[in-house]
Amino acid sequence: MPIFKCPQKSEPLWKEWDKKAQKNGLRHQVFSVNGDHYVGEWKDNMKHGKGTQVWKKNGAIYEGDWKSGKRDGYGTLSLPDQETGKYKRVYSGWWKGDKKCGYGIQFFGPKEYYEGDWCGNQRSGWGRMYYSNGDIYEGQWRNDKPEGEGMLRL
């Protein structure tokens, strides 16, 4: 009586390679085609958790929390200083959906900065602006401009 063996069913190679390429958990540097790179945690092929992104075009660095591929949570954005070559902080604070949202500090220059509430990348709510000439505005903001009750100290 002849014996017939059924060939084992095997998955195509591309399926195995695709499984290995899926990004979940902590990863070392992952580069984009444009030269940007990211080091940090992943979930379902998206930046998720703690991580650091470096943009090649302008040299910006973001260190902080990510959610579903977007900056979300607490983080710091820094840019390189053209004169010294060192990085200087531009914004430290809360993010939501890749935009400044919640409490944060934005640095406009060495002696000029804003600390307060943000909504959709704009100063909105209570905040205090320190100007380079020594003036200080403390009060309400809306759409990135002082509006409502506030006090300007000259």
Any overview of this molecule?
It is found in: Cytoplasmic vesicle, Secretory vesicle, Acrosome. Keywords: Cytoplasmic vesicle, Repeat. Interacts with MEIG1. Interacts with TP53, MDM2 and SIRT1; the interactions mediate post-transcriptional modifications of TP53 by MDM2 and SIRT1. Its main location: cytoplasm. By secondary structure, the chain is mainly beta. It has one helix at 13-21; strands at 25-31, 37-43, 46-54, 61-67, 70-80, 87-96, 99-107, 113-119, 122-130, 136-142, 145-153. The protein has an 11-stranded antiparallel beta sheet with strand order 1-2-3-4-5-6-7-8-9-10-11, with no helix packed on it. The termini are far apart.
User: Proportion of β residues?
Assistant: over 45%
Strand order, largest beta sheet = 1-2-3-4-5-6-7-8-9-10-11
Radius of gyration: 24 Å
Poorly predicted residue ranges:
none
How helix-rich are the residues, as a percent range? under 10%
> With helices defined by DSSP (H or I, 4 residues minimum), what is the helix count?
1
Dominant shape: elongated
The overall average pLDDT, rounded, is: 91
Distance between the termini: 104 Å
Instruction: Count the E strands.
Output: 11
Q: How do the helices and strands follow one another from N- to C-terminus? A: HEEEEEEEEEEE
Secondary-structure-based class equals: mainly beta
Reported for the largest beta sheet, the result is: 11 strands, antiparallel
